[in-house]
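Morning F.,

Quick status update on the modeling queue. The single chain you submitted on Monday has been processed. Sequence for confirmation:
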Amino acid sequence: MLSKANIPTLGMWETPFYFYDLDLLDRTLSACKQALDRYGYSAHFALKANAESRILDRIREAGFGADCVSGNEVALALRHQFEPQKIVFAGVGKSDREIRIALDAGIFSFNCESIPEMEVIAALAASMGTTARIALRINPDVDAHTHHYISTGKKENKFGISPWMFEDALTIIRNNPSLVLIGLHFHIGSQITDLSVFGTLCKRVNELQQWFVDRGMQLPHLNLGGGLGINYQNPELAPIPDFTTWFEQVHQHLQPLPGQQIHFEPGRSIVAQCGHLITRVLYIKEGLESRFMILDAGMNDLIRPALYQARHRIENISAQLRNATQDECLSYEVVGPVCESSDLWENSALLPKTLRGDLIAIHSAGAYGQVMGMRYNQRDLAPAHYSDEL
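Structure tokens below.
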């Protein structure tokens, strides 16, 4: 995953830090764009996955829009020169301040998630003498077969407008000239690895969209969200996710309206594999039943393992320089320095014999890693370094 020749240079930077492979990012963006262009689809990058300035600039330059879930993300997209007509704003709890920011900017669409939200956006837009383009985020009750914390499309989830709310939604739209309905929005979850789920979603979208068509609604846009998963266990086998199959599933099963523009919101699939959390071994501690490898990176730097019980591939990159063999591998409980028992990277990682000071790479950390960093225990935030700095 990381070039052996680059390891000495990585060791010159203070750990922990995030290291981004810009060449892989560019190749991933190109692969996604090529798969989108095959069918004339559009995409907005989910800023919640990664908000690093250099990453965002590259994504914008590749022609992607921005998918935002807060007013600050809208402001960040604007600072990075994403065109307002390529910015969408979702989220179940948009504040009045955030809505005004987006209205002032003239963004492409608010993805509305409830009846009360629609009423507030209508009132704020009217008070500002403007109109708000909206898409109704529909809860289709489709199981994404993913972790329950990142499932967003089932009827028990907090996200979206359910079918029994449709009549009320149309009444609000018809009674408020400050609202302009431009389409429907769907997003059923994240880290989806069973790609047939997208076909199932499309069949449900066909049914739900017809309800609006039967009532004379014009729907020039359809947003199917994101969710494409990546290979966390063996990232070197699939450094670029399978965008082709994702969009083929949609093309095969979706029945778009004439001239309808189809949008997506990839996040993790764009940036996850290009990012690595680089950390250093502080201590090897021999316990009664476990051999602990204590790192200087913890759950404050990458919270996914503590929050989701997620697992990332862990590699001792210093051992590469010592030409360690598989015969020298030992089992380690890999932990961080934070005062929480949940600060655990892996409870039985088989790694080459490891020494104090060795560099450890935690792979596939480009999404929901640095952007979720926090200062718990008053720890410093891990900075970013890039492959073109080597």
